[in-house]
């Protein structure tokens, strides 16, 4: 493949147009001598010639052009540079332009149809050489100008990407759910330690109050069990959800407790640790509220359908809401069960029926024989909900409510056999809740019917094709059998004739 006639070099300070003086072919470019020539400025400067260098007017223009190039868009500034510096060509006499980014090719081709855009190995070698000798090739630039411009543009480009990232809200959800899961583990571990430590003083309390948060708060209220009297009933009842019977039981057990007395210093350490557990638990509650609010803003339909925590785990595991919306329903079904899936594929065993969606209440409600079926149906609805959340302009819970209703009706259908809601009716109901009216000409039922007819036709065509193939195979087998039988008969006939003549 021949090399490019011209090169477009994009850099932080501006655009450079180079003319290729010595052409190479693809095989020659891989030779050691040619590779070394690009590293030598004396040899490389004879291979290319700078035609034009168009600097950017400022950092804002540099950032704008960098964003356009990353998206494969040719800016007006770049268009004017190419039109001014590239020679006019016809369809018979085309010129080739080498670029570093493949996505720029179609955009340049749109407004310069007679220019072929290349991004092959030869073009990349030339551009690599220009990058190495940039300080010498671009005259008028002082030493360090390119590095400073690159650093400034890099910071501005990265800042803009973070600032205008579509997935920026997802990042907070991913961090929040990861912290929530970590806090659950830590609080359970610390609560066990508190119970064990305070159990030396008042062992009966752990059997009376099982809730970790209430237990830690009771420790702070009781301190030394010997100080408990009937006057403390009201304070204990306020911690135990106004359950005076349970509070009285705590007081009675404190009087006859088998626990040992501990020193004031030891008690202070236990109380300090209990205070940390209470603070962590309260922070966990605040974090859960924050996550709930965030999920209802970012993914309201997914939250309504499957719950905030499970929805957040799905988003976290997929990487972002956009990634989740791109996943097929079958992938969403087993998200979180990848280890079990690959183990099953390796051992040729049964593949898992569900992953993270197992924690949904719908899976728990289903009978053991229907868990796989409802998980497949629920994954399908989760996939729809995530797509609506990701691509809708205004957040709404209408579709989530209707999808949830559909899953509940599907559960009833598995148990009782009552007919569930049709998809067309579900869409109509959701659109009615959002206040959107369907056009009279376009009915959802018609779309669904057309789809069903198309699927039936495809199935019918497949069946006919299969039958034809089977018939053809049978006919070929029969023909082969007949041919073989005829050949056997023809071999036997002359032998018989010969025998008769002897007689």
Automatic annotation (TrEMBL):
Nop domain: residues covered: 298-416
Key words of the record: Nucleus, Ribonucleoprotein, Ribosome biogenesis
Region named Disordered: 447-503
InterPro entries in UniProt: Nop56/Nop58, NOP58/56_N, Nop_C, Nop_dom, Nop_dom_sf, NOSIC
Biased composition annotated in UniProt, kind: Basic residues: 453-484
GO molecular function, one term: snoRNA binding
Annotated compartments: Nucleus, Nucleolus
PANTHER family listed in its UniProt record: NUCLEOLAR PROTEIN 5 NUCLEOLAR PROTEIN NOP5 NOP58 (PTHR10894), NUCLEOLAR PROTEIN 56 (PTHR10894:SF0)
Annotated protein name in UniProt: Nucleolar protein 56
Basic and acidic residues bias (residue ranges): 485-494
Function: Required for 60S ribosomal subunit synthesis.
Any single Gene Ontology cellular-component annotation: small-subunit processome
GO biological process: ribosome biogenesis
Family in the record: Belongs to the NOP5/NOP56 family.
Domain of life (superkingdom): Eukaryota
Principal cellular location given in the protein's record: nucleus
Keyword Nucleus: yes
Pfam families: Nop, NOP5NT
């Amino acid at each position: 493949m021949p090399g490019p006639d011209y090169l477009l070099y994009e850099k932080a300070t501006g655009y450079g147009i180079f003319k290729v003086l010595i052409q190479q072919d693809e095989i020659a470019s891989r030779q050691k001598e040619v590779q070394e020539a690009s590293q030598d400025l004396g040899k490389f400067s004879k291979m290319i010639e700078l035609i034009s260098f168009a600097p950017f007017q400022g950092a804002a223009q540099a950032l704008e052009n960098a964003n356009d190039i990353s998206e494969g868009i040719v800016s007006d500034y770049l268009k004017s540079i190419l039109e001014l510096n590239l020679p006019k060509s016809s369809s018979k006499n085309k010129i080739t332009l080498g670029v570093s980014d493949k996505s720029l090719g179609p955009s340049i081709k749109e407004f310069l149809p007679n220019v072929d855009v290349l991004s092959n190995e030869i073009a990349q070698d030339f551009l690599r050489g220009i990058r190495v000798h940039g300080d010498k090739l671009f005259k008028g630039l002082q030493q360090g100008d390119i590095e400073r411009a690159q650093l400034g543009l890099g910071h501005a480009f990265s800042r803009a990407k973070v600032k205008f990232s579509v997935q920026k809200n997802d990042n907070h959800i991913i961090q929040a759910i990861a912290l929530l899961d970590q806090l659950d583990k830590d609080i359970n571990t610390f609560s066990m330690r508190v119970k064990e430590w305070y159990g030396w003083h008042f062992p009966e309390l752990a059997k009376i109050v099982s809730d970790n948060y209430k237990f830690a708060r009771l420790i702070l209220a009781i301190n030394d069990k010997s100080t408990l009297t009937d006057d403390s009933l009201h304070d204990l009842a306020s911690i135990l959800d106004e359950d005076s019977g349970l509070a009285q039981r705590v007081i009675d057990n404190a009087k006859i407790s088998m626990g040992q007395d501990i020193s004031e210093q030891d008690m202070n350490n236990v109380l300090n640790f209990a205070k940390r557990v209470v603070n962590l638990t309260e922070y966990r509650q605040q974090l859960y509220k924050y996550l709930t609010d965030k999920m209802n803003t970012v993914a309201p339909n997914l939250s309504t359908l499957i719950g905030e925590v499970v929805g957040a785990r799905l988003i976290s595991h997929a990487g972002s809401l956009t990634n989740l919306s791109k996943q097929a329903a079958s992938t969403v079904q087993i998200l979180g069960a990848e280890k079990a899936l690959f183990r099953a594929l390796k051992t040729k065993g049964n593949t898992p029926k569900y992953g993270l969606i197992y924690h949904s209440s719908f899976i728990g409600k289903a009978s053991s024989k229907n868990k796989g079926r409802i998980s497949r149906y629920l994954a399908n609805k989760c996939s729809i909900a995530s797509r609506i959340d990701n691509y809708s302009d205004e957040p709404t819970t209408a579709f989530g409510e209707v999808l949830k209703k559909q899953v509940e009706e599907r559960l009833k259908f598995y148990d009782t056999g009552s007919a569930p809601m049709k998809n067309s009716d579900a869409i109509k109901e959701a659109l009615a809740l959002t206040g959107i009216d369907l056009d009279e000409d376009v009915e959802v039922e018609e779309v669904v019917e057309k789809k069903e007819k198309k699927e039936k036709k495809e199935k019918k065509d497949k069946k006919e094709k299969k039958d034809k193939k089977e018939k053809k195979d049978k006919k070929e087998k029969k023909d082969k059998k007949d041919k073989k039988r005829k050949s056997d008969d023809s071999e036997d006939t002359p032998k018989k004739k010969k025998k008769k003549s002897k007689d």
